[in-house]
Specification:
With 33 residues, the protein is mainly alpha-helical. It contains two helices and no strands. The relative contact order is 0.18.
Length: 33
Protein backbone atom coordinates (compact mmCIF):
# COMPACT_ATOMS: atom_id res chain seq x y z
CA UNK A 1 0.00 0.00 0.00
CA UNK A 2 1.05 3.59 -0.58
CA UNK A 3 1.69 5.59 2.61
CA UNK A 4 -1.19 7.84 3.58
CA UNK A 5 1.09 10.88 3.64
CA UNK A 6 2.02 10.16 0.03
CA UNK A 7 -1.63 10.02 -1.02
CA UNK A 8 -2.40 13.20 0.91
CA UNK A 9 0.52 15.05 -0.67
CA UNK A 10 -0.44 13.91 -4.16
CA UNK A 11 -4.07 14.90 -3.59
CA UNK A 12 -2.96 18.33 -2.39
CA UNK A 13 -0.87 18.90 -5.51
CA UNK A 14 -3.77 17.81 -7.72
CA UNK A 15 -6.11 20.24 -5.97
CA UNK A 16 -3.61 23.06 -6.44
CA UNK A 17 -3.27 22.22 -10.12
CA UNK A 18 -7.04 22.63 -10.47
CA UNK A 19 -7.39 25.55 -8.06
CA UNK A 20 -4.25 27.76 -7.82
CA UNK A 21 -5.93 29.71 -5.03
CA UNK A 22 -5.20 26.79 -2.70
CA UNK A 23 -1.49 27.54 -3.09
CA UNK A 24 -2.09 30.31 -0.57
CA UNK A 25 -2.81 27.68 2.05
CA UNK A 26 -0.13 25.23 0.90
CA UNK A 27 2.94 27.35 -0.01
CA UNK A 28 5.37 24.47 0.67
CA UNK A 29 3.53 22.21 -1.78
CA UNK A 30 3.56 24.95 -4.39
CA UNK A 31 7.35 25.18 -4.09
CA UNK A 32 7.90 21.46 -4.64
CA UNK A 33 5.42 21.40 -7.53
Amino acid sequence: MVPVDRLSDAATQIRISYNPALATYFPSTQETA
